[in-house]
Amino acid sequence: MFRRSIGKSLRLNRASKLTQMENGQTPNEKYLHDFTYHGKEYSVSEAKEVLSPYFDGSGSVDLEKDDNGIAKICLNNPRLKNAISVKMMSDLDEITDKLYQWTECKGAILYGTDGNFCSGGDLKLAKKMNNASNGYAMSVYFGHILDKFKKLPIITVAYINGTGAFGGGAEVTTACDYRLMCNVADTTGIGFVHSKMGIVPAWGSTGRLVSIMGGAKKVLDLLLEARTLSAAEAMDLGLVDGTVATLEDAGAWLSGKISRDVNVIRAIKRTVLCYDDDDDSKAEARELERRIFAPLWGGTANQAALQLRLKHNR
User: Fold this and answer.
1) Considering the chain, what percentage of its residues have pLDDT values greater than 70?
2) How far apart are CA 59 and CA 78, in angstroms?
3) Membrane spanning segments where (predicted)?
4) How many Cβ atoms sit within 10 Å of the Cβ of residue 303?
5) Which of 2, 149, 280, 293 is the most buried (most CB within 10 A)?
6) H/E run at residue 60
7) Closest alpha carbon to 260 in 270, 248, 252, 268
8) Which of 138, 92, 94 is nearest to 297 (CA)?
């Protein structure tokens, strides 16, 4: 009886392996073939060119340089609660280049105008550019901008106020060294709500979140649940570093971090980045992220969510 059981088990294992290798593909290889992007790959410059028809969108990102070596970077699209457009990300790209050139800069605060941080991506724009090729190009270009911003040799803080940071807005905060939330209103939140929109993060935030929160399981829960987190919940998870009442308070908080000589601060940031630079495996993961995201962008679930005009408020 025992031998028959072993024989049956061996036959099942062999059958399983044969199924796995059907047509020369393992289940993982079949998934990657069937559910990921197979279109044209783009360099950063090519991705920017693909997105060029959408550069006339609304909003801007504005830079203000203070004499104390702190930059203020303002997401400025108040009609849409600072929803992100292609033009705004292009502005952030140019501002990032300027900050690399400003050698006396110690730190930067990223915030939103008109009392709100960022409601996510511009949904009207999303409908216009809603196909896999544009999704892949967007992932390449936006991800490059946020990677470049993250590697600035200065200390960066996102000040999340008003309704808070959602979707793409939440992704942008992960490119900052620190995140602060406003404690004036209970309605301020942060939410990686991508799954509600039928998509996944695609600007590099998944990898950053694993580093920020210290574990893949926490990030898995965060993305699957797609909940709006209060300041207290976000702090418990390690996603947010503190709370303040005003933008001025955020500036004071940052000033406390950058009281040393400018060259020492920039050296510390560069040294830390040496241990967090993308290696080959991370680069491969980012490429896979783009390929997984692209078919979802404009897919059935995403189209349905866009038609519902989902709002990211609580």
Assistant:
1) 89
2) 8
3) none
4) 14
5) 293
6) strand 60-65
7) 268
8) 138
